[in-house]
Amino acid sequence: MASILTLRLSPSSYQRLIQPNLTGLRRAELGFDSCRLNLRNDQRKAKKFVIRLALSGDSDKQDKSIQDIVFVNTRNTLVKFRESVCSRPHIFVTKRTSTSYVAVGICVVTMFLVIVMRVYKSRISRPSRPGSVADLVRRGQLRSDRRGISSTLKYEDPFNNPMVKISMTNSTVEMCGKVYRLAPVTLTREQQNVHIKRRSRAYQWKRPTIFLKEGDAVPSDVDPDTIRWIPANHPFATTVSDIDEDMAQTNVYQKHGVPFRIKAEHEALQKKLESLQNDQKFSKLTIDAGNAKNFERPFRTQLKPDDQVEEKLSNGPSRHTQSDCTRNSLGSNTNTDDIQHT
Amino acid sequence: MISLLTHSNPLSYLPHSSPTPSISPFFTHTKTLKPSKLKSLKINSILQYNRKPELAGDTPRVVVITSGKGGVGKTTTTANIGLSLARLGFSVVAIDADVGLRNLDLLLGLESRVNYTVVEVLNGDCRLDQALVRDKRFSNFELLCISKPRSKLPMGFGGKALVWLVDALKDREEGCPDFILIDCPAGIDAGFITAITPANEAVLVTTPDITALRDADRVIGLLECDGIRDIKMMVNRVRTDMIKGEDMMSVLDVQEMLGLALLGVIPEDSEVIRSTNRGFPLVLNKPPTLAGLAFEQAAWRLVEQDSMKAVMVEEEPKKRGFFSFFGG
Ligand SMILES: Nc1ncnc2c1ncn2[C@@H]1O[C@H](COP(=O)(O)OP(=O)(O)OP(=O)(O)O)[C@@H](O)[C@H]1O
Ligand SMILES: [Mg+2]
What is the pTM of this model? Predict the structure, then answer.
């Protein structure tokens, strides 16, 4: 019933209703130009279909609808029909593309948003101390890509450097495209000596050999001219030397192997462990930072004289664990950040 | 102040050519692979890349680069001269003796590779060769820092330590370095004393202004008292345009006030700042810059123990050609 009602509205509405059923699919496949080819078959099909529809209806408006259908079959409407059929898929296709445009647009926008989010997230999670080189690079004040890795000027490259040219008369020089006037240097040896004499009169100085803090007593065998007095609150200099000079010197001259101090510490540790093993108990003990830390207490009670070395032993691993902890916590921080952002 | 005009006559320069055998490489060594072509040119080239400078003096040449006043360009000079020496094939160890405020590593772009310093060597935490940071661009250039920014070095000990260091570098397996350049901190405090202790020659960096000159004179006096007689000066940040307007002392004025031989004159150049931030010394720049060329020439003179025989004073007014009328 409903179909008949709509059929009655107008010939064009009838076309509109029927057309997609019959040819929509094929047209979509073949395109606009193929509609003519299909039309002949379609005409017959359409006729049959409409007639069947009309017969199935039983209301008093049957006659009118049949008239309509007959009217459809006239030449004039056929032309119209053909035209509209040809134009139909046009509407159909444009409708479909507009929806796909929207879909693509949404995809692009979401992708863009995802990229922005990820960049922002990485920005936030990146650890950077303010003022560090990495930080300056991030803020664009330094160029990381250029730090120390540019291609170098080849030694042989400018065979005769074209940037520096001197004129034949030696009165001008052309550097980097600019011409400069040259003036000869007139300083003579005598003039230099005059200056040296003047300075030797003006400045009497002996290189300080000893540094004393204000309030220190002057050693008897020291020339008072070579004493340098240092304010007590000097920011980075200390006058007290906790470095054993002889050992420092041997350290500087050492060319092979493990540095002296590390070796000494290592040997002391080895000795201590051996003595412990001889004592009893810790027969399986090896030199391992973690183990050593665990056995810190027995060490302390048993061995008094080598306290210092032992301190270092216990300090070493604990410092490590501390730094590990901070690293872990940093890592976990970034992880939680990630989770929060996603 | 002598007037520039007294020197400006080119004829007065020509007969002046000094009788000493070591004349600037610019003017004596015109021996190139293309001599015939050069002769035909009106202007010939100054820097000759096919010739390497000949090393004068005993190795290692321990050179301290000092100034008295801060911020005049000691570190810039050390980095640039050091790398151009390395590029010329000499082995160089640059020591950053600026204990409190070191920045030579930054200028060289090596800051991330400084793990150990002299303080660690003295403490026995590492060997000397582990503290030397080898440059990736030139393997014959090495950097050595005295200390990390926050570590304390006992005063009066640094000088001794540096003497040992130089001594230890002398009998290394790979041989004694040709040059040991020491970047001196500003002032005449303990850091200065430390830096000059092992040196036997000095490069004094100054700018052509009265404050830097007074400090420079004082420092020269101290160096001479300490027995360092071979002092050459380097005038940095010279602006030829200001000299012309008599707003700035000329290099010759500076020389007259200090009475030192000139190692180099470095013009004010914005490329210096750029190269500082890039961690890539100017002398490696391609194409060469004005300041980079000047540093390179200074390095050349340092090797040959030479000094400048002529200086640029001002920009020649552009000759207006016929076509300049049409907007040239
Ligand atoms: N010829 C130049 N032209 C322009 N800028 C320059 C020049 N020479 C040095 N500078 C700038 O001057 C500043 C100080 O230079 P540098 O660090 O070399 O001085 P310094 O004497 O080592 O300082 P300090 O006394 O602190 O050690 C730097 O920023 C550098 O870029
Ligand atoms: Mg400096």
Answer: 0.61
